[in-house]
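Ticket #4471: complex job returned nothing on first submit. Input attached below:
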Amino acid sequence: MKMHNLVLAAAGFAACAVGVMESKIAAAADQFFPLLVYRTGPYAPNGIPLANGLRDYYSMINLRDGGINGIKTSVEECETKYNTKLGVECYEKLKGKGATLFTPFSTGMTYQLIPKAKVDKIPLMTMGYGRTAAGDGRVFKWTFNFPTTYWSQASAFVKYVASQEGGMNKLNGVHIAHIYHNSAYGKEANPTLDALQKIHGFKLTKIAVDHPGQEQKSAWLQVRRKRPDWIFMSGWGVMNQVAIKEAVSAGFPMDHFVGNWWSGSESDTIPAGDGAFGYKSAALHGTGTDWPVIQDIIKHVYRGDAAKAAENKIGDVIYNRGVLNAMFNIEAVRTAQGKYGNKVMQGEQVRWGLENLNITTAKLKALGMEGFTQPFTVTCADHESGGPVIFQQWTGNGWKFVSDWITPITSVVRPMIEEAAAAYAKENKITPRTCS
Amino acid sequence: MEFLESIFILPFLDIADSPIFFLEVVISGVLAGVMYSLVALGFVLIFKASGVFNFAQGAMVLFAALTLVGLMEQGVPIFFAILITMAVMVLLAILIEKMMLRHLVNQEGIILFMATIGLNFILEGVGQIAWGSDVKKLDVGLPDKNFEYGGMLLNTLDLSAALIAAIMVTVLALFFQYTGTGRALRAVADDHQAAMSVGIPLKSIWIIVWSVAGFVALVAGILWGTKAGVQFSLVLIALKALPVLILGGFTSIPGAIIGGLIIGVGEKVVEVYWGPAFGGAIEGWFAYMLALAFLMFRPQGLFGEKIIERV
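Support reply: We reran it on our side without changes. The output follows.
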C-alpha cells in the first residue's frame, strides 16, 4: 500500500513538474499556441485527429524550419470533452500562460468566448465553425472565421445542386431537405437556405434531429414521406453515421445526399460500411497524404515512419483540417512578425496578423499546399473572406473531389452577415469601427 | 389559427390520407421501443436486486461493445469474442461486488447511486484507454437488408434486433418470476438484511445480477453498435431508457417492455405528425413529458410496486 502511494505521489509530482516546465517554456521565448482539445467523450473520434493535425504542424515548423523566423512554437493541451463549460475553463486556465490566439473548435464555446476575447485582447480563430456574423470585422474585431462560413457553405451547396440539375434556373421546383443537428451549430445553415429558397424557388424541408442522433428513425420516415430530391446534412458525431445508414435503409440515392464539412470524414462513412459509397460532403481542403506538407510532417515529425503517422490519422479529413488551421495560425504570426519584428507576438499583434493575412497561390505552393486549399485575403471589414467550397465523394476507401471550387453567393450571404452583425452590435452596445 | 390547424386538423388528415404510412410509423416505433426496453432492462435488473439506480448502465453497454469489437479486431472469431466479453463482464461484476457493493451494504440508496457515478467514469475511461476512441464498425452477421411489405419499407436488421431484444426481455421476465434465484433477487431488493437473515447469499446474488446486467449490456451494445457503430456515444442511450423506466416502473420487467413500446410508438407518431408544428426534434422531450403525465396518475409507474410505509 505504501509502495502504491509512493508511486502515485511520484506520478503526481512528475505530472506537475512537466506542467510547470511546459508553461515556463511557453512564457520564456516561444510562440505559445493553447490547444482546446477533445480527445475523450462522444466527439473524440473527430477531436483526436483534429488535435493531432494541429500539434503535428506546430512540431513540424520547429523541426523543419527551426520555428517561425527562428521563434519556436510550443503548445499545451486542455481537455474540453467538447463541453462548452469545460472549454471556457480551459480558456481561463491557458490565457494566463502566454496565449496569443485561441482556436476553440466548438461553435458553443465560440459564442461564450467572443465577449471574453475582446476584453483579454486574445483573438479567436474559428475556421469553418462558430458565429457566422463574425465575418463582419467592423463589429467582431477579435474573431475570425476565414476562409469560409456555414452560410457561404450553404449557398455553395445550392450552387452545386444547381450545377447538377442543369443551372440556377432549374432550381425552381427542386425539393431540398436540410437534416440538421438540433443545436445552434446545426441551425446555422437555415437562414441562408431560407433566403435562397425565396430567390430561386426550390422547395425546402427542414428536419431537426435531437442530440446525439443515435435514434433518428422519425427524421427518415419524414424523408420517405416527403421524398426530397436532395438532402443537405448539418450533423456531428454519431448523428452522421446513423444518418448515412438510415439513408441507405430509406433507399435514398447517396449521390444526392450531401453533408456539410463537419459531416464528411472517414469516421462518418467507414462505420456505415458499403452503403456509404457515393455519399458526398462539402470540404474546404484536400484529403490524403499526397500533399507535400503532409509528406513533410511524415518526414520530420514521424521521421519517415508512415505507419506510425497513419495511426495518428494523418491524411484523414479532420487531421488535414487541423493542419490547415495550424498553417493559418502560423502564417498570421509570420505576417505580424513582418510588421513588429521577429520575436514572440502578443495577442494584439497576432490579431493584426490575422487581419492582414494574404494567402496567395505562391505562398500555398511554398507551404506545400498548392491545390490543398484556395488563396484568399482577410481584411479589416471581411474576416470571412468568402472563400470557395469544394465537394467530395466517398469512394469506399477515400474521398475524391467531384466539383470545382465553388464561390459562395456573396451577394446574398454578405448582406445577411452584415445585418446579423449589426443586430449583435446593437444588442451588445458595440460601435462598429471604420475600416478604410 | 394556422398553428392550431397544424395540431388539431392536419395530422389527422395526414393519417387518414395514408394509413399504410401511419402503420409504418407505428411499426418503426414498436421496433425502436423494444430496443429502448432492452436498455431499460439493465437498469431494472440491478434496481430490483440491489435497490441501486445504476448510473453506469450506459457505460457498461459501451464497455461491453468496445471489448467485443476490440477482440474481433484482434482476429478472435465472433463466437469466442462474445464468450470472452461475457467472461469480462462477469469479472467486472465480481470486482464491483468486492470493491464497491460489499462496502456499502445497507447504506442509503443515494450513496450507492453516487458510487455508480464513479463506476461510470471508470468504465468510460478504461474502455477508451484499452480500445481507443475511434468509431468502430461492428458486424456480427445480423442481416441488414431492406424489403417492402404491404407498401411499407422494413429493414431486416431492425426486425432481427427487435426480435432478439424481445426474446431476451421475455426470458429474463420468466427467470425473475418463476425461479428460486429470481425470487431471491427480489427478496434482496426489498431488504438486504432481512434477505441475509433467511439465508440468501447477498454477495452471490449481487454478482449474479450484475453479471446478467452485463450480459444485457453486451446484447444492447451489439444491437445498437451494429446500427450506429461502436463509439463513446453508446453511453448516451441510457437517456432513451429513462422515460421508459419512469413510465414502466423501476422494478418491473413487464413495465420495461410496455413502457418501451408506449414511448417508442408515442415519440415516432408525435415526431412525424406533430413535430413540424413545433419546429421538429420534439421526440426527446415528448418521451419525458409522456412519462411524467403517466406519473400524475400512477406515481410508481405503470407496473412499479406501490410503496407503503408505516409511519
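The two ends of chain B are 53 Å apart (CA to CA). Closing as resolved unless it happens again.
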